[in-house]
Amino acid sequence: MKVVINGFGRIGRTVLRAWLQGGWPDVQIVGINDIADAETCAYLFEYDSVFGRMAQPVSAGDGLFRVGDASLRLTHKSDLSELDLSGIDLVMECTGRADRTEVARRGIRAGARRVLISGPSDAAEVTIVLGANDDVLTPDHALISNASCTTNALAPLAKFLHDRWGIATGFMTTVHCYTGSQPTVDAPRGDLARSRAAAL
């Protein structure tokens, strides 16, 4: 399966790290698309504040992203439909911006067979949580949402409890890491509540 990562932020970089560790013999990541320049993509991948420094050498330039022996195509398009993705089986949509159908379908318009959105999206044909409802996924689904990280943490456990004993009502609390959209200091935003510092 040939895969392109669209959006090389926290999630896109983690996908590439997981793939490089092995265990996905049928997956071949062949490309990365991100609006950041090549030097920034390489630097943020090599020196990750959470995972630490990559053991393999990392470099990027001349349209390529290199990690160890792997060499991937590197592009910088804000509109994925400008790329030729014919022959690509799956676009891993990790930009966090695929909540509108027009944006979410760009990978398919570019020629990819399927798009897997890393977060929730109203544009998806189906939302799948492994261990909760993956039995409803069919080969006909082309635009798939992987739901939110909170849903992925809760849904498999809730399904087990509900199937075993039944759940009449429920309440959950999530403790979440910072995201790229949260300011670390008070700063003007469109939403007043989101203008406050995330750490306080």
Give an overview of the whole structure:
There is one protein chain. The chain is an alpha/beta fold. The chain has a single domain (2-148), classed as Rossmann fold, CATH 3.40.50. It is built from 5 helices and 11 strands; from the N terminus they run βαβαββββββααβββα. The protein has helices at 10-20, 38-46, 101-104, 106-109, 149-164, and strands spanning 2-6, 28-33, 47-48, 52-53, 58-61, 64-67, 70-75, 90-93, 114-117, 126-127, 143-145. The chain has a 9-stranded mixed sheet, covered by helices on one side. It has a two-stranded antiparallel sheet with strand order 3-4. Helix 1 (10-20) links the parallel strand 1 (2-6) and strand 2. It is globular, with a radius of gyration of 18 Å. The model has no long low-confidence stretch (mean pLDDT 94).
Short description:
This protein is an alpha/beta fold.
